Amino acid sequence: MFYRGSNKYCYKRRELPHWDIPGVRQALTYRLWDSIPQSESKKIETGVANAKADMKDYAMRRLMEECLHRGYGSGLLRHPEIAKIVLKSWLDNNGRAYDLFEWVIMPNHVHLLFRPYPGYSMCDIIRTWKNSVSQIIRQTDLYRQATRDYPDDLKQAVWSMDYFDRAIRSNSHFYNMKRYIYNNPIGLKWNGKIVEKPEDWPFSSASTGWQEYL
Asked: Is 113 among the domain residues?
């Protein structure tokens, strides 16, 4: 579904608006299929419905982010075996279809800062990332264990269909999003310890720890 507006690169898919503008830096979040339970989804819908008309998109993003950070779902991405699959999918075309600036892999979602090259739409890049890893992840023992008690119709899913993005407006906006990405894992546990600094979480561009998993 495309917005009727002056910007032909603005469209809406499912709940969230997207700005797919060639050559513009983007802050992106996408998540695992089970990261927002139905009960929480209804609360988000209620919160958005009660927001002012010009604040509904903002309310949707804020409420979804808050829900993701509660850690619902299987948390498959916390496993190095799975995080490695996702990271490799990003690195494979870095410098060819896009520039990947910063990233973090959280237990049930991911954040990235990147810039698609002209001729490569953000939508197609994200679809490629998701599709390229879904079949691999579904074949892992970790995925089979995580979905053991799930209904059959959910056992083929890996990612939620939608994602949310923000076009970067300025250098200050870029560095604010960079800090946000870096600080996302603070408070999580890794190797039995609470993450206190961004570099303590290995699945992040703020750290060098991820290199040992590739």
From this structure: yes
